Input
Amino acid sequence: MDLFDIENQTGDPALDFLCRGTTSELVRRFAQLDHISIIPIRSTLAAGSGKGTARLVLTGFLSGTPGEERLEVRIFDNSAHQVLWSKIYGHDRFGNLLHLQEKIAEEASSALIRHVGGNAASEWLSLPFRHKGTSPTQNATAFESYIRGSSLQQEYSEESLRAAIRFFEDAVSRDSHLRLPGHV
Output
């Protein structure tokens, strides 16, 4: 599966963190699935070529005007030339980004598993949600700081890295048990 970055089409760079955080959560969740290889494509589909090269492709975009944004995520089956799953999440769902991103990842991975099928799918779907993979924190404010820091960290400038550190410090101050990737 090719997994493209969620594209921010709003024109508001302040929402880049939401797109990057959603992409990261999807990659994290899909990486836990058996029988599926994920290739994170660090560009948006619009910036990439065609519809990806894998049999399955996940794309998404954030669009709309301030206060009316919507996030659409789609899984496309290239071999069948059809949309396997698609969902639009309206601005009213953006209040708790932690829950929104978990919900998107849960619904997309569940659709993918149903498509792939087999015993592994039914076993995975029957597990309690929290055992399918957990976010780095259950504190919504700490999580927002964490994904803002993660987004800035990917820009690789001195200024963005310093800002990322401030967001990570804020996240840890709000949740001292925050699990950062690569740390035990």
